[in-house]
Amino acid sequence: MKDRLDEFVNNNQEDMVQLLCRLIGANTENPPGNEIAAANIVKEYFEDCGIEYKIFEKEKDRTNIIGYIGNGKPEIVVACHLDVVPAGSGWDTDPFIAEVKDGRVYGRGANDNKGQMASMMILAKFLKENEGIFKGRFILAGVADEEKGSALGAEYLVEDGLLHADYAIIPDVSHNMQMIDVSEKGALFLEIVSHGKQAHGSTPEKGVNAIWNMFELLEKIKNIKFARMSHPLHSPPTFNLGIISGGAASNIVPGECRAKLDIRYLPGDTAENVLKSIDDAVKEVEAANATAKFEVKVDSSLPPSEVPVDNPLVSSILKHAEAALSAKPEVKGMAGATVNKQLIVKGITSVGFGPGDTGEAHIANESTDIKELADFAKIIGHVAFDLTNSG
User: Fold this and answer.
1) Which of 127, 240, 251, 350 is the most exposed place for a label (fewest CB within 10 A)?
2) What pTM does this model have?
3) Which residue segments constitute the domains of the chain, with CATH numbers given?
4) For the chain, what percent of residues have pLDDT higher than 70?
5) Around Cβ 33, how many Cβ atoms within 10 Å?
């Protein structure tokens, strides 16, 4: 089966490239999304291959399409997203007219995440043609809204029970298939408001300077100790002060100041712990400074996630990636967030693993390596057969 799969992917590499070019040509910039444009290409392909599929939309034209091959166990899902970030400026060519050059495909979404989708569509065709000997179930999901938080995509599908599996692979990690993401930090985004009292700049004693009071609080927050300060797969937890704004003019005492924080904390810690530490800092500053008054708002909160590093999915990816690439991927944790989180919360063993250069996503002249996409199809195909003990 291994040789048959590898030969099939090699023989269908040109079809894979053409699929990717068509997907790039479907403009799915998010916002507004319009993932239906790419989903229609996937739908047509599934129908040509005889692959069963379902379409789900939480909002009109924010389309998720899921294809199903086989009816056995385990169920293995690969979820690729159909939306892309806005093209922006600086392109040498039209970002939505794909260009194939020197073994690479150029265009918005080539690396993030339409190349991976095209690769998996070729694998889906092979599995369908060999469905009689594939004992598990392979699920290929083209999902919406990943670039804006997945509320209309993976999060919606999982929360509504529309997407479920035993194992999941999220090919949105890149690293040229040299990394397997098994753990992600929690991500807590906060807005802190310092309330003061406006006055003339020449008589600051008549007002309350919200900015000075904010500085006091931020110094306290900067030195907070997290409940968990180390993890074998991660760098230490972090605070980032991303935005601070306040005041109307230099000769006016500012009556309000706002700060935006991005806090990344480790598996084993909780958002509740972090918020309590910040609340303690607020109370300490307010107790020492009678003019200080603060309000803390949670903009968004994503929990940390992790799966065992010795689970069968990781072991199989390690084995087949090393065989195909002559290099063993590293099993690591990430500070960023992927839809692994939503899947792991629902009890699905989910990891991040995929082709692509880490520096290619979200840039002008985005591109992906064709051979890597072919190798990815082979590796995931071997993993699928491996996990079902039918290969």
Assistant:
1) 251
2) 0.89
3) 2-184+306-387 (3.40.630.10), 186-302 (3.30.70.360)
4) 99
5) 22
